[in-house]
Design a protein that fits this description.
By secondary structure, the chain is an alpha/beta fold. It is built from 12 helices and 12 strands. The chain is globular. Keywords: Flavoprotein, FMN, Oxidoreductase.
């Protein structure tokens, strides 16, 4: 099987909303929710993708012809490439009946771990979603990141115990999940968190804590104040707020604000190739998260599909580094790209 065959296979089982497009740019699904689309008029996912196209590469092949190293180390774990699979929830609702949250995470976590990266897993109304996700991470020797919704802190603490039992190497909260309908009427209240509430979570977290869903410098500094070990520059794929900024548009200013702080910076939103991974690193990210293409990979090829996607991203990143004259991830700096006027 090759990756083109994975895409074709996915179209047979992925349900009626996602089209398993060759270019996953948000155009075909637009504002279909349920489905992989974005909120409101549906252009946020499209703009996430298009914003990366505004940056172009500075080719430089007057360089030593040495081996390219695409690996990174984060939270004392080494990974093949600076890419993580993103969390996906309500798999049945959005992508069809071939997988549910439990079976999807089992395939994704195992395949990612075996291929040298890690997967973020999702959360849901049913507590068993987190139980099954952390069980998959435990089976992968802790190589996975359970992502907890911003429930009441007491409920969050219960889920942190599951992460601890799984020996997860990091734990995340998609704080922008506050915009999801099922969180709005929770008792006790769920949704937005104060800095103090986040501090309480960080203190109880058994591993480095990642705040996912930061889109401004102000938000990044709040996450830092709360003690977050990392943030994810993310607008939740455009699914929680219409007409917000694309992640590529704000990444550089957030990275500049956190420079020297020790807080790791991840970014998601429309990143689809190793070339775009390179651009994100040049703008200041330490790593990226990719979600929707991994859904296609699972539905189209199971574990093999996931590994083919990771291999594709690794090859694209390595080729881009070669042609831009850099040999290690830390050599990818702002001067390796340019902005189109």
């Amino acid at each position: 099987m090759n990756y083109d065959e994975v895409i074709v296979n996915a179209r047979k089982s992925i349900g009626k909303y996602c089209k398993s497009c060759v270019v996953c740019n948000g155009v075909a699904c637009k504002n279909q929710i349920p489905g992989p689309g974005a909120k409101g008029i549906g252009d946020n996912a499209i703009r996430n993708y298009e914003a990366w196209q505004k940056f172009k590469l500075n080719m430089d092949t007057i360089s030593s012809n040495e081996k390219i190293d695409t690996s990174i180390s984060i939270f004392n774990k080494n990974f093949r490439i600076p890419v993580f699979a993103g969390p996906v929830g309500a798999v049945n609702l959005h992508y069809g009946e071939a997988y549910n949250d439990a079976s999807y995470n089992q395939v994704l976590v195992k395949a990612c771990s075996e291929a040298g990266i890690a997967a973020f897993t999702g959360d849901g109304i049913n507590d068993d979603v987190m139980v099954q996700a952390t069980a998959a991470i435990k089976a992968a020797d802790g190589i996975g990141v359970p992502t907890i919704k911003p429930w009441s802190n007491d409920r969050v603490f219960e889920k942190l115990d599951l992460a601890k039992d799984a020996s997860a190497f990091a734990v995340a909260m998609d704080i922008d999940g506050a915009g999801l309908p099922f969180l709005k009427n929770c008792v006790p209240p769920a949704g937005s968190k104060t800095v103090e509430e986040l501090k309480q979570i960080v203190e109880k977290c058994p591993a480095p804590f990642i705040v996912k869903g930061v889109l401004t410098v102000k938000g990044a500094l709040k996450a830092k104040e709360a003690g977050a070990a990392a943030i994810v520059v993310s607008n939740h794929g455009g699914r929680v707020l219409d007409q917000c900024a694309a992640t590529a548009e704000v990444l550089a200013e957030i990275a500049d604000a956190l420079k020297g702080s020790g807080v790791k910076i991840l970014v998601d939103g429309g990143i689809r190739t190793g070339v775009q991974v390179f651009k994100a690193l040049a703008l200041g990210a330490d790593a990226v998260i990719i979600a929707r293409p991994f859904v296609t990979a699972v539905f189209g090829g199971g574990e093999e599909g996931v590994k083919l996607l990771i291999g594709k991203l690794a090859a694209e990143l390595e080729d881009t580094m070669t042609m831009c004259g850099v040999h290690r991830i830390e050599e990818i700096t702002r001067d390796t790209i340019r902005v189109l006027k």
